[in-house]
Design goal:
By secondary structure, the protein is an all-alpha fold. The chain contains 6 helices and no strands.
Length: about 180
């Protein structure tokens, strides 16, 4: 039952955050700013974290123990959700042919022009960006970068949820005594 719950909530959170990512990116493909897309994506991550906290709460009912087991289960759910997110993003890039690197470079250029930067500053920043993004073409690097985008956010939310659940458990134990 424990593994099943971890998988269910991990896949549910992953499906939700992946949907938010894909809807956000799809709606912003031709936009001059990533602001709305980023806000939508991070909101999706927070909701996915809430789904994980609900899963951890369910684990407390199943395990009826201290915080360590359901924290570990919560981190497992976060890892599953992050893997779903990573696979969804990489699949989206492959299926649609969306050139994230070119879009990101265009957004940097647009921002710098709006800020009144000189052509030399813009060229230097774009060259720096191209150098940094060169590794993004390698699937294993892309997977690590994508995974590391979401997992730390979900990990913090799981730890926060574990802290909240441990306070609740202590109150319940104190009231029972």
């Amino acid at each position: 039952m424990n593994k099943r719950t971890v998988w269910i909530f991990g896949l549910l959170a992953g499906a939700f955050v992946s949907s938010a990512l894909l809807i956000g990116v799809s709606s912003q493909k031709n936009a001059s700013s990533m602001g709305w897309s980023l806000a939508f994506g991070y909101s999706g991550m927070i909701v996915a974290g809430a789904i994980l906290i609900v899963g951890m709460s369910r684990m407390t009912l199943i395990l009826k123990r201290n915080t360590v087991p359901y924290l570990m289960h919560g981190l497992g759910m976060a890892a599953i959700a992050s893997l779903v997110y990573t696979v969804s993003w990489m699949g989206f890039l492959r299926i649609t042919g969306y050139d994230f690197k070119a879009h990101y470079a265009q957004l940097i250029e647009n921002q710098m022009v709006e800020q009144g930067k000189s052509a030399e500053e813009i060229a230097a920043r774009l060259a720096q960006n191209a150098e940094q993004m060169a590794a993004y073409d390698q699937p294993h690097i892309q997977a690590v970068l994508t995974f590391s985008e979401i997992f730390p956010v979900l990990m913090v939310l799981v730890l926060l949820g574990g802290w909240i659940l441990s306070i609740r458990a202590r109150k319940t134990q104190t009231e029972a005594v």
